[in-house]
Amino acid sequence: MTPAPAGFVVGIDIGGTGSRAAIAPLDGAPRFELDGPRVAVTADGSTAGELARGLLAGLREARPAEFAAVVGCGIGATGLASLVADPAGLAVSLRAEFAPPRPADAPAPAVAVAIDAVTAHLGALGGESGAIIALGTGAIAFGSDGHEIWHRVDGWGHLLGDRGGGAWIGRRALEAALLAHDGVDASGSALLAAARARFGEPAGWPAQLYTRDDRAGVLAGFVPDVVALAADGDGAALAIVSEAGAEAARSAAAALVPGLAPRVAATGGLFGAGGALAERFRETLAELRPDAELRAPLGDPLDGALRLAERAARGELVARAPSLWLA
Amino acid sequence: MTPAPAGFVVGIDIGGTGSRAAIAPLDGAPRFELDGPRVAVTADGSTAGELARGLLAGLREARPAEFAAVVGCGIGATGLASLVADPAGLAVSLRAEFAPPRPADAPAPAVAVAIDAVTAHLGALGGESGAIIALGTGAIAFGSDGHEIWHRVDGWGHLLGDRGGGAWIGRRALEAALLAHDGVDASGSALLAAARARFGEPAGWPAQLYTRDDRAGVLAGFVPDVVALAADGDGAALAIVSEAGAEAARSAAAALVPGLAPRVAATGGLFGAGGALAERFRETLAELRPDAELRAPLGDPLDGALRLAERAARGELVARAPSLWLA
Q: Where does the ATPase BadF/BadG/BcrA/BcrD type domain start and stop, copy by copy (chains A, B) (predicted)?
């Protein structure tokens, strides 16, 4: 392994609920963090690039000296493979954000942009072989040994998949609420009451959702209520939250392809929040892959983005479209 | 009943798959029809108003003499109650489209705008008491006696409901296709092959969907393949199409509220297309409401829009937000 260059690294994590950025010294001392808005998808595609630029500008303003000494930048973003037209070009343009003023002997840092699953994997397994399942607003599983195997499962977005993620849970819960409202199935009555408290009368829900570019985030905004109702034993909420755990286990098992160590980490706030979700996840994973060890995640996707930045700085990365792009 | 004024009526039907307009003499002689694009939902809401204006301009250009003699205009549109900010204002502004050149003794016609369920009901049951279920791109059920009872079920759009409609079927089928692609559940393999043939490789699907304002129409575009596979006996496709029929029956039964005649009509292309859908619909409705008579629809929503126009011309309508607005 090449010795680490002196200096700082920047990590950025861009998701459907929010975004975060951190700048940290390579020796691992305490880092400085910023929060940013969540990603949206417009007719021009994902806003991930703009968000990343905004966060870099924020870090530069808050920590100008450290920013001038950045040697690597790692970015993980949702929808990068499918909703950003040119991820390689994005990496090049983000590298330009590190233009002078910099010391004369400090070239622009290495920049790596990756799908969120890559940074989630690096954060949770710290570079070891295995599979991760990341449940945030969306849901994506990823199996990798960091070298030859890069196997993605799901991450298809709130209309096509993201099975078990926040938007998936929110959508199912609102569907159940409206079945109660429509007089079709009363089991969603408690969800209906909770949704009314959060979103107002059902007649106004379509306008709150269909006119927005961040529909997935709006749907996921209902998750805290669903999880709370599930914890209280509400049958409809419990069924949705449990099924989310089963879906997450199926995706994780599918990501654990031959050649990988039988190791799984589950990451994202949903695993901590929902007792029933985490429980059903463990049960289903044990049925599907009794040989797999379930590891507590070492860190979160922002930790993974910093680790990616460090590897980029060391020159240890090789571009791997449609998962990883370098500049 | 007031005697019918001489002249012509205009009917417009605006949906997620396309729009249609017709101009017809009040005595029921052959009508002239135009087709238009499907509705989209942007950050400003539904494009239904623009579409209606475009169709009126097309009719005026194609049939200027008849257009100058229009005495009533009826418009049914999807999303009107929730995604058009001011449906009453829309009725007023559409009435202005009938401005002179008109004969001096011909005032601007009465204009009625309604949710699509109202025109579907009028078209299918011809003004009789009962409930209809309309399956197009979306799904909405409506129970009415034409006077006191106006009871809507579903019509919540592709993220919140529209249970059993075209977008609902398309979304479920693409989800099943991606479960096969992801190695989670192979039962969707035939759906995956069909979806590849229509939309290309899965990696390109999110960009085809999430960047568009007519997502529901894109999803519903997969329905012909799903219905064909179901007819060939493919298990995954058959399950989705059958469940759509069951959902439609549940909505229809919920719309058949006390006070209505036990009469149901099912309208929309999906009932004709899918043998399994229509069969499961009949079975489920018979279980839920064994007393209900299942009627063949008298006409389609465009017929209903013309009937609405006729009633508007006769002064027989009373405004009924959030279902019907007059100008």
A: 10-280
Verify whether the Cβ–Cβ distance B159 to A171 is below 8 Å.
Answer: yes
pLDDT above 60 (res A3): no
Is A159–B251 a contact, with Cβ atoms under 8 angstroms apart?
no
- pLDDT value of position A306: 96
Q: pLDDT band at residue B268, thresholds of 50, 70 and 90?
A: confident
E strand or H helix that includes residue A28: none
**Burial tier of B1 (Cβ tally within 10 Å: 0-12, 13-18, 19+):** exposed
Closest approach of chain B CAs to the CA of A72, in angstroms? 29
Helix (H) / strand (E) element for B133: namely strand B130-135
- Quote ipTM for the complex: 0.87
The per-residue b/e assignment along A38-67, b for 16 or more CB within 10 angstroms, e otherwise, is: bbbbeeebbbbbebbebbbeebbeebeebb
Q: Which residues contact B109 (CB under 8 A, 6 or more apart)?
A: B9, B10, B70, B71, B72, B73, B95, B98, B309, B312, B313
By the 10 Å C-beta count (0-12 exposed, 13-18 middle, 19+ buried), A33 is classed as middle
Q: What's the rounded mean pLDDT across residues A101-107?
A: 69
Residue A20 dihedral angles phi and psi, to the nearest 5° = -140, 150
Contact of A101 with chain B, judged by CB distance below 8 Å, is answered with no
Same domain, A290 and A303: no
CA distance B257 to B255: 6
Task: Kindly state the tokens that stand for B11.
Answer: 């009917």
Averaged pLDDT, A252-266: 98
Same domain flag for A225 and A308: no
Instruction: Please count the structural domains in chain B.
Output: 2
The verdict on B190 and B260 lying in the same domain is: yes
Say if the Cβ atoms of A182 and B251 lie within 8 Å: yes
Percent pLDDT > 90 in chain A is: 73
What is the reported pLDDT for B4? 43
pLDDT at B85 over 90: no
CATH number at residue B266: 3.30.420.40
Count Cβ neighbours within 10 Å for each residue of A80-96 and write b for 16 or more, e otherwise: bbbbbeebeebbeebbe
**Alpha carbon distance A221, A224 (integer Å):** 7
Are B314 and B225 part of one and the same domain? Answer: no
Nearest Cα residue to A216 out of A46, A54, A12, A34: A46
Q: How do the residues of chain A divide into helix, strand and coil, expressed in percent and rounded to 5?
A: 45, 20, 35
Written as six digits, the tokens of B25 are 């003499």
Q: Which pair of tokens denotes residue A296?
A: 């507590």
Rounded mean pLDDT of B280-284?
97
What local confidence, expressed as pLDDT, does residue B84 receive?
Answer: 80
pLDDT tens by residue, A274-315: 589 999 999 999 999 999 999 999 999 999 999 999 999 999
Nearest by CB to residue B83, choosing from A178, A210, A219, is A210
Q: Does any domain span residue B114?
A: yes
